[in-house]
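_Per-residue structure_
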Amino acid sequence: MIYHLFQYLESIGCDFPGMGLMHYLSFRAMLAAVTAVLVSMYAGKRIIAKLQRLQIGETVRDLGLEGQIQKKGTPTMGGIIIIVSILCGVLLFCDLTNIYVLLLLVSTLWCGALGFTDDYIKVFKHNKEGMSEKGKLLGQVLLGLIVGLTVWMSPDIVVREKVPVDTSIERTLETETEVTEGRYKEEDVVKSTKTTIPFVKNHEFDYRWLSPVKGAWGWYCKWGIYVLMIILVITACSNGTNLTDGLDGLAAGTSAIVGVVLGIMAWLGGNLIDSNFLNIMYIPGSGEIAIFMSAFVGALIGFLWYNSFPAQVFMGDTGSLTIGGIIGVSAVLMRKELLIPLLCGVFFAESLSVLIQRSYFKVTKKKYGQGRRVWSMTPLHHHYQDKKAPEGPVLFPKPVPAQHEAKITVRFWIVGIILAVSTLALLKIR
């Protein structure tokens, strides 16, 4: 809103010192991040107090985990703090006519509503299982379908190709605009199914290559494949973050690290000169995603003020599903979805551990009459925290002694930072 206010004042001839700063993505990104942090810290205290008055507390089953029983009664549904903080930063400083911002706003509200419904059933209906897995999955798939079809149909979501740029030109907004308007031809603007992939010369992979048919049907087929991939990425990211939310500060801290990298990538991919220098895909308008991700990271940092060990509030599915949805949608919009397994390696490992554990247990139970486990407990972070001896044989025994959850969280953050730096390094590896 402030961004559009400044635009209006400029259009009617108003001019005062500092007015031009709103043209710069970097300045607006900083303002969005600071706003989200302050809102999260200010509103968080009041929201937590409200949750306590409503007796919206976490119910805990004794699984033999260190410090688990002490968490009983801690307010949940704290994801409301994250959503409110993101919306404040974005609505104030983003270009609200930008298609990428609009899609991310829809995704935030959609996943927030989905997670809120799940938490509401758990807390107020006293059903620990919450929404059914099918219901939750359906909501995620529908969001993926909406995003995928918008990427396919919207004339505003394009990539530009064959763009010669003089990198010696000074990096100012005006200069970049001149280069953009003066060097592009109509044929440079394309609706494309290309995405970013590491270790190849042009860092590009085209889903068209997966199409089994050519011609007119091939065109529909390649977009169908791309939309299915978008659905898969958004669903996987949303569920992966949900599974990671099991220790104080783990999901929020790890997601903030991922958000920083996605913001940097959005900045580079939305900048004509930087994308040309790095030889990566230039996506007009995607620089606004960097501002959204700045608000996202700021909201998570502010939330950590209350969620770090010992947590005063849990984000619940309201927060975890929202965080995962934002990460998945932003990666798709920037054509970086194939980097997700590395960038979100912590989420990927957590999800994979659950999948492997369930599959191995079912197979061994059918074969030996008693289910066996790969780890003492999943998701993976609980394996290092587990104090109670598991029933039946375990392929990888639990660590002795069991680790404190604060140590596990920080170590997972360190792994997340290593993966984040590795992902950025891939931009120059061909």
